[in-house]
Design brief:
- Two copies of one chain form a homodimer.
- Chain A is α/β, with parallel strands linked by helices.
- Helix content of chain A is about 45%, strand content about 10%.
- In chain A, α11 links the parallel β7 and β8.
- The longest helix of chain A is centred in the middle third of the chain and has 16 residues.
- The two termini of chain A are about 30 Å apart.
- At the A-B interface, α7, α12 and β9 of A face α7, α12 and β9 of B.
C-alpha cells in the first residue's frame, strides 16, 4: 500500500478526504461511518446528493475545496518526500485510534523507517509547555531517555519547550520517538525545529493528519492533541500553566481511558500550576520513567503479552526478520553491530528493533539489544524456523 | 484545674504517671483503661499487685521510676514556669486525642495563653525535614501564614527547618501556632529555637507529654508525632526525604482518619522525594493554604458548624467574653484595638480571638477581626446578653 504502483480506490478517496475535511471533523466522521468512504467522496465531488448536517454555505465551502483537491498529485508529492499514507484497516494502522469514534483521522501521513502500528503499541506521550523552564526541559529529557532505555516509544508534538526536550531525550539515548504534527509532515513546524524533525524522521517517525504542504492553525494544534492522546498508552504532562494546551491532551487521554500522569514541580512556579491542578484531580504523580512504566506497563488488549512473542517468526516482515536473525543467540549486541549483520542502516535497525520489542522478541539490555528468553526458547524449540 | 490551689487526686496521679510511663506506652494505656488511674498509680507505688503484661525487669524499672517521682513538686515547678497540666475529660482536653486509644497521652503539659481544646478544633499540622531547602522553608512559611490568615491554627514540632518555618510564618501573620515538643515544655529543644519557642508560648501554645525537665530522645520524637497527627484535622508534609520522620506523622494522620496532604517540589530534589512517594499513595497534593482549607474545612463532628456560634455567650469563659464584647458591632478591628478595649494584652486577645473563631463568633477580615453575621444576629436577637 505504501507507495504501491497503483494505489487502490479507497486510499485515493481518503487522500482526497484529507484535502477536503479538516482533521477531527465529526460530521465528516459520521458521514464516513454511515455512508462509507466511496459515497462521501462521490458526494463531495458533486456526483451525489449533498450530505446532511451542514449548512448550505458550509457545503459550498467543502465543494470548493473538493474542486481544488488533487489526491493523485498529493500522493506523488508525498512519495517524493518519503511520506506514505496509512489508512484505517491497513497493516500499519494503529487500531487504538479507532477509539476516537467519528473523530478518528481519515488517514495518517507518515515519514520515517519504523512501522507505526508496532511502535504505537508501546508508546507514551510526553507533552508540556512551549515556554518551559530549565527544570522542565531537563525533566522531560531525562524522562524520555529513561522511557527509551526501557524500550518505550516517546510521542510528542514536535513543539519548542517540553516537546522538543522529550524528542531529544529519546533520540540522545538511541531510542524511538514519534512527532505528531499539526501540519503537513513535509513542512516541519516550528521552523526552528527543522533539523530536529528531520532527525526524528530518520530515526523515528513524523506523522500527521494534514496532507503535504498544509500549514498549522490554532485549531489544528488543538485537534492534533487528540491523536497524541489516542495513539499512546498514557500521557505525561511535564510543565503546563493553567489552561495550557497540554492539559487538554491529558484530559483527552483521560476520556479515552488512557493513563494520565503529571510531573510535579515547585509550587512557586506558574509553569507547574497546571500540572498540579491536574494532579489534584485526575492524574497520577510520576517522578521518573520507572514510575511511568509501572503504570502504563500493565498491558491491556492493545499489546502482546510481555512474556514472549505472539507472532511466529515467519509472519514477520522480511526487514524485521532480517534484523531478528542478526541478533546473537545469548548475549546483547549494540544496534550498530546488529545493523551491520542485517545489512541495513543503524536507523532502520533501531526502527525494526523497536517493532520486535513490541512483539516480545527482543529487549533492551544496557546500551544494546538481546533476544528475550521466550524468543530464544521459541528458536530452540523449533530450530527449523531460524 | 489549671494551677488550682488544691489539685484533685486524679490530676496528681496523672502527673505521677507522666513521670513513670513513657509517652505512647500502650501497655500503660491498657492498664489505665482496664483498672483506672487510681489503681494503676497505687500498683506502681507498690501498694497493689504488679500489673500484667510486662517482664519482672521492666516492672522493677517502672517501680524505680515511681520511687523517684514527685508529682506535687513537678506541678509546683510547672506552675512557676507558667505551665499547666491538662488531663483527659477536663474542659481544655482536646477530645480528638481519644482517637489514639491506649496510646492516648496520660495528660498534656501546656504553656501559653490560649485554650488548647478550642485551638485544636481548627488546626492543621505543617511538618517536614529539618535540613530543608530554601524552597521548603519559603513554602512552609507561606502556607502557615495563609492558614493563619484564614483563621486556622498551625501545629508543628518546633524543630529546625520546615517546623520552624511553619511556626514563624504563622507568628509573622499575627496568627496562632502550637508547638508539640518531645521534651519538657519548660526546656525548649532544640536550643537554637529557645527564642522561637518562647515567642510561641507568648502568642500561641507550647505543649508536650513529658513532665518539666525531661530531655528528648529519638523514640520520644517518634511517639510525639502521633500527638501532632491526632490533634489536628490534617497533616501537610512540605519537604521530606525517603524514610523521613514527617512521613510517619502523615501516615499516623492517615490511620487516624485525618487528611494527609503533601506539597510537591522538583523531582530533582531528594528532599521532595518522600513527599512525592506519599502523594503517589495516600496523600492529596496541595499547593497553597486555600487548597488545604478546602480539604480540612469540611467540618466533621469535632468542630462547631461554621455558620455560627453554638455556645451561648454567657457560657464563655470570662476572658473570652471580655474580648468578644470588645469587638465593634459591624466593622473589623485590629487585634491591638480589641486588646485595648478588652483591657488585656495583644497576645491574650489573639489567643481569645482564635478560640472565638473556633466557636463561630468571630472571623478574620484582612488584618483584623470582626463578628460573624450569626454572632451579630444572636446579639440582636437577644440584646440582654451582650
Amino acid at each position: 500500500m505504501n507507495g504501491a504502483p497503483a494505489p487502490d480506490a479507497e486510499l485515493l478517496d481518503r487522500v482526497f478526504l484529507t484535502q477536503v475535511l479538516e482533521p477531527g471533523d465529526e460530521t465528516g466522521g459520521r458521514w464516513l461511518r454511515e455512508r462509507g468512504v466511496r459515497e462521501v467522496a462521490r458526494s463531495l465531488r458533486g456526483r451525489g446528493a449533498p450530505l446532511d448536517g451542514v449548512s448550505e454555505k458550509r457545503w459550498a465551502g467543502l465543494r470548493a475545496r473538493a474542486g481544488r483537491a488533487a489526491p493523485a498529485q498529493a500522493l506523488d508529492v508525498a512519495r517524493d518526500a518519503g511520506v506514505r499514507f496509512v489508512i484505517p484497516g491497513s497493516g500499519e494502522w494503529p487500531r487504538q485510534l479507532d477509539d476516537l469514534g467519528d473523530a478518528r483521522p481519515v488517514g495518517l501521513w507518515v515519514r520515517g523507517p519504523a512501522g507505526l502500528r508496532m511502535w504505537a503499541l508501546r508508546s507514551v506521550a510526553v507533552v508540556g509547555a512551549r515556554a518551559c523552564t530549565e527544570y522542565g526541559a531537563h525533566t522531560a529529557a531525562a524522562l524520555a531517555a529513561g522511557l527509551a532505555e526501557r524500550g518505550w516509544v516517546v510521542v510528542s508534538g514536535g513543539a519548542y519547550g517540553i516537546d522538543g526536550a522529550a524528542h531529544r531525550g529519546a533520540l540522545a539515548s538511541g531510542g524511538a520517538t514519534v512527532a505528531v504534527l499539526a501540519c503537513g509532515v513535509d513542512r516541519p513546524y516550528p521552523r526552528g525545529h527543522t533539523q530536529l524533525i528531520s532527525r526524528i524522521a530518520e530515526q523515528g517517525l513524523v506523522i500527521g493528519e494534514l496532507p503535504p504542504g498544509e500549514h498549522p492553525t490554532p485549531s489544528r494544534f488543538i485537534v492534533r492533541n487528540r491523536v497524541i492522546a489516542a495513539l499512546t498508552r498514557g500521557t505525561v504532562v511535564v510543565e503546563a500553566a493553567h489552561r495550557s494546551g497540554s492539559l487538554a491532551t491529558a484530559r483527552a487521554a483521560q476520556r479515552l481511558g488512557r493513563h494520565t500522569m503529571g510531573v510535579p514541580g515547585p509550587v512557586t512556579s506558574g509553569l507547574s500550576a497546571g500540572v498540579h491542578e491536574l494532579l489534584r484531580k485526575e492524574a497520577v504523580l510520576v517522578t521518573d520513567a520507572a514510575e511511568v512504566v509501572e503504570l502504563v506497563g500493565e498491558m491491556g488488549e492493545l499489546a502482546p503479552d510481555r512474556r514472549g512473542p505472539v507472532l511466529p517468526r515467519d509472519l514477520l516482515e522480511p526487514g524485521a526478520r532480517q534484523v531478528l536473525n542478526a541478533l546473537p543467540g545469548s548475549r546483547a549486541a549494540p544496534a550498530d553491530e546488529i545493523a551491520r549483520d542485517a545489512a541495513t542502516t543503524p536507523d532502520d535497525a533501531v526502527a525494526r528493533l523497536y517493532e520486535l520489542r513490541a512483539l516480545g522478541f527482543v529487549e533492551r539490555h544496557g546500551d544494546g539489544w538481546k533476544l528475550t528468553r521466550q524468543a530464544v526458547i521459541s528458536v530452540r524449540g523449533d530450530p527449523g524456523q531460524c
